[in-house]
Specification:
single chain, mainly alpha, 10 helices, disordered C terminus, two-stranded antiparallel sheet
Length: 279
């Protein structure tokens, strides 16, 4: 009896050491050794290598017309509060939100808004948009920066990630990386008088203040909270909610619309028309 008890206790101790101490330590060490960037949370730092700008895995808002915008967020891009709106397809609040987003994007029948720009992701933190979503915003960004549209579109093509295409993953563009690359092409200056009229609370910025030129005080506070979260937690939130607003996959939102369409050319129009007809 005593021998069996000793063997049982010894087995528990050995199992605990192997599974709860040795294995996590080995995985942690290998991660930092071979994938230090990912192990730290895929954080992006400024040119001085000390100023934390954000993470490749977490979306953040951009208020200035000089920058591309990520997908809408039901949690205001709070990294510690990932989630969706939980609004069903027949909910009038969802119809109102979609209509407001379409109007804000100035979408038309001839130039419909891509689906990922008018629908929030399940997590509210999706850092990527479709190439179509980036192309849609290219004229606005090019006009604000006084750049040729072709140059902005070429930058989008260069930063489009097509990894995983062999298993069906769609092409995607990381918004934060794209905006940082924009500042390398042509640093954003302070808001013009026209921009100031549109956004009276937007603070002017210097070329080195990328990538947050012209953001409002409220947005600056939100971003500061995000940075603090990145610095304190390090375990970047990557949860994906299962809300009804994201009927399609949160990771691959532009592949399937409400009508099940899979052709990329027709998804934006089919979803927009379907939602607006329900309003």
């Amino acid at each position: 009896m005593i021998r069996q008890t000793v063997h049982a206790v010894a087995a528990c101790v050995v199992t605990f050491i192997v599974c709860a101490v040795a294995y996590p330590a080995v995985v942690w060490g290998l991660g930092w050794m071979f994938f230090p960037h990912q192990a730290e949370g895929s954080l992006i730092y400024g040119p001085d290598k000390t100023t934390l700008i954000g993470s490749e895995l977490i979306a953040q808002p951009f208020a200035s017309d000089k920058y591309f915008s990520p997908r809408p967020s039901a949690v205001d891009y709070k990294a510690d509060a990932a989630g969706g709106s939980n609004l069903g397809t027949k909910n009038p609040d969802l119809h109102t939100k979609v209509k407001e987003r379409v109007e804000a994007l100035k979408a038309t029948d001839a130039n419909p808004a891509p689906v990922d720009l008018i629908s929030a992701s399940g997590s509210g933190l999706d850092p990527e948009i479709s190439p179509e979503g980036a192309y849609f915003q290219a004229p606005r960004v090019a006009a604000a920066r006084k750049l040729p549209v072709e140059q902005v579109r070429a930058l989008i093509d260069r930063l489009t990630d097509r990894s995983g295409a062999i298993v069906g993953a769609p092409a995607r563009v990381n918004v934060l990386k794209l905006n940082l690359a924009l500042d390398e092409e042509k640093p954003a200056s302070g808001p013009s008088p026209t921009d100031a009229e549109k956004k009276p609370s937007a603070a002017s910025s210097s070329p080195s203040a990328s990538p947050f030129a012209g953001e409002t005080d409220e947005r600056a506070a939100v971003r500061a909270a995000h940075v603090g979260n990145f610095r304190d937690r390090r375990d970047v939130v990557a949860a994906v909610g299962r809300n009804n607003e994201s009927v399609f996959s949160s990771r691959f939102p532009w592949r399937v619309g409400f009508n099940g369409a899979s052709a990329q050319g027709g998804v934006s129009r089919s979803l927009t028309e379907r939602l607006l007809t329900m309003v």
